[in-house]
Structure formats: structure tokens, C-alpha cells
Design brief:
With 381 residues, the chain is an alpha/beta fold. The protein is 33% helix and 34% strand. Helix 5 crosses helix 8 and helix 11 crosses helix 12.
Length: 381
Amino acid sequence: MKKLSIFIALILTLIFLTGCWDYSEIEDIAIASGMTVDLDENGLYLVNVELVDINPSTSGVDLSPLIVEAEGNTIIEAIRNIISISMKRVRWSHGSYVIISQEAAKKGLIPLVDWIARHPEARLTIHILVSKENTAKEIMLEERPFAKIRALEFEKFVKSSHYLSKLPHVEVYRLINQISNKNLYSVLPTIELKDINNKGYSKMMGSAYFAHGKLEGFLDSMETMKYLFILDEIEGGLLIVPTGDNTDDKVSLDILKNKTHIDIDIEDDNITFIININTTVNIAEVDNGVNYSDIEGRSSLKKIAEEFLEDELESFIRYTQKDIGLDIFGFGNMIRKKNKHVWKAIEENWDSIFKEVNVVVNSNIKIRNSEHISKSIKADE
């Protein structure tokens, strides 16, 4: 009896271990690594999906890209129409990027974000980039100098972008929250092609800002860096500080770490945002031969760098208030969190109030030594 019980238990175990409810043959599926979204001349969505073609090779497995194009009245219809060409169901569990054209972005991000959020396989960490070229498709189709699969190339760009701090990172769940809140605005990374020796290379730098999910304009790489300073999203990069009237008099400071804290002072009808920035840097390059490594030189450079950063950020905020006119920093949301009573009184007029609020930037820069030398290199005249 005991032997029979063991035998029955083994048989039942084998039954439950022999399959998977969601099992698919590898020949029946196509693995998507990313896609582009454009609009055709009729206003239909035109998607190009990068599929990963897996082939056996002498070294093991060879991965190569296969680009498939389809169109539809909606994004999901265009993606579903890929099946009629690839003859396979597209799996999105490894999809890591979407490039959207300016025209499609002006129409709105909601269809794209809604599809990502609803799809059971699509990852909420997928990178959404805005093309600065005429289309998004041409970026995907350009030659891949660093990796066969465009997604692998983009992953390298994103991982190394913290050395520049000129590219925002926005998770899809944050994007959904921003689009859903009428007082929040989205800022997404941009991508374009740069011609080098008659070859097009992808350049990920700068950003695009959105109002209510629709593209409004662009920030260049330096404006994006200032935006990241204010949002406390600086991870590295260089702070290039002019130190004299001569354009060649510059010091490059390598940002090691940064912390930005924003206080709000509300008195009667006056609202002031006090932005306190603490930055630790190394001296990475000195162009004019001045010695900034001794106590006097470092004190002088500290003052120059702090005043420079304060002026740059305050000027950028004024430009945002007057020319862009959108609270891309989320200042209003900070008031809502700190003082709901005040926010309730000003919420409906915040867009106009934002243009007039006072902003003060205080910078504290700690300068460490250079890596190998203690004095600047100076030519002997």
C-alpha cells in the first residue's frame, strides 16, 4: 500500500511538471526589442518593430535585427498587423525602447502610454524617446555602429548617460502620473542623427517638453542639464566655468555628486522658491594655466563657480517662466504637498502665477583635488 501511494504521488507530480499553460513554440513567436511610431500622410499610425532574429551559429547563437512595418488606425492595430507580415505573434517582454516622431508626439502620448500600461508583457521601464529627425523610422533604420540590435545600442547609451547628465530618465509610471495631473508637465529624452564621415550615428542628448501629453517644444543639452540640476537628478557630468573675459579662460569641473533641496517661502501673496544646491567636484581641466589647487586659488574658483551656476540656473528659470510658460519643474506640486490650503486658493490660476513667482538659487560647491597633478600646466614664455 505504501509503495502504491508513492507511485501515485510520482505520477501526479509528473503530470503537473510536464507543461505550462502559457507555453508557445519558439517558431511561433517573434521577440520585439523596440519600435518606432510615426504618422503617415493620411494620419494613420505607422509602426516599425525591431524583431530579434535568432539563428544558430558556430559560436552558439547569432542575433540579428529584422525590421517589420505596418500601419493602423490605432497603435495597437498597427502592432497587431505585424502578424500579417511576420506570421508570428510579437512578444514584448524584452522590448526596451520606443522612438516617437514629432508629428505623432504632437498628436499625443496617451495612445502609446495607454498601450504600454495595458499590455501584459510591455515593461513600465521601457525608454520613450522623441525623434528630432523628420521621422522616427529613419533612426531605427540607420546603420548600427556599436551593436547589431538597436535596443542593445540604446541600453549602452542610457547606462553611460549619467556621465553627461544631459538626458532625462522618465519611467512610464511617472509619465502616466504627469499626464494625468493637469499641473504636471513631462520632459522626455530626444534622439537625432549626427553625420560623422558620411555615416549617421545616433545622438541621445537634450529633451522635449509636453503639456497634457502633447509635444510643445525642445530643450537643448545644456538647458536639459540645468533642468536636471533643479530637479535633483544630476548624477555626473561636467560644469564648464568661464573664469575670465577671454573665451579660452575656462575650468572644467567633474561633478562627483550633487544634492538639490527646494524650500518654499509663502508670505501673503508672495511665493519664493529657494533652491539650495550642494555639489562636489574635481578639477578636470584648466585652460588658462592658473593654479587653482592651493588654498587661495581654490577659494577663488569656488566663488566664481558658485556665482556662475546660480546665474545660469536663475536665467534658465526666468526663460522657462517667460518664454516657455510651463511649470516643467513641478513647483506647483511642491506647494500642493506643503500647503494644501494655499494650493487650493491658487490652483486654478497657477499657470499665470508661475510666470511671476520669485526664485533664488544658492550654490555651495566643494572642490576636491585633481587626480594626478596638484598644479595647473602652464606654457613657459
